[in-house]
Specification:
By secondary structure, the protein is an all-alpha fold. The chain has one domain. The chain contains 4 helices and no strands. α1 crosses α2. The mean pLDDT is 87.
Length: 79
C-alpha cells in the first residue's frame, strides 16, 4: 500500500535526508523508520557503515594546510 505524505515539512525532511544519504526519498524514509523502530541491521559492522563517510572525506582531497597546535588552540579559543 503506498504512503502519501501530505505534509510539506515531512516531505522536505525526507528530501534533505535523501540528499544527505545519497539515496531516494523512499529509501531515506525506510532507513529513518527502521532506525526509529530499532530495526537497524546489526550484521553490518561499524567499519562497513562508516566507510561511505570516509570515502566522501577522502574524495575532497588534502588542502595542503598544516594543522598544528596553534591551529587547534585557535579553534578552541585557547589562544
Amino acid at each position: 500500500m503506498p504512503l502519501n505524505i501530505r505534509s510539506e515539512e515531512v516531505n522536505q525532511m525526507a528530501e534533505t535526508l535523501a540528499k544527505r544519504l545519497g539515496v531516494s526519498k523512499t529509501e531515506a524514509v525506510r532507513r529513518a523508520l527502521r532506525q526509529e523502530l530499532g530495526l537497524t541491521d546489526r550484521s553490518v559492522s561499524l567499519w562497513e557503515r562508516i566507510r561511505p563517510i570516509q570515502d566522501r572525506i577522502q574524495a575532497r582531497g588534502a588542502t595542503g594546510l598544516e594543522a598544528d597546535k596553534a591551529f587547534y588552540d585557535e579553534l578552541s579559543g585557547d589562544t
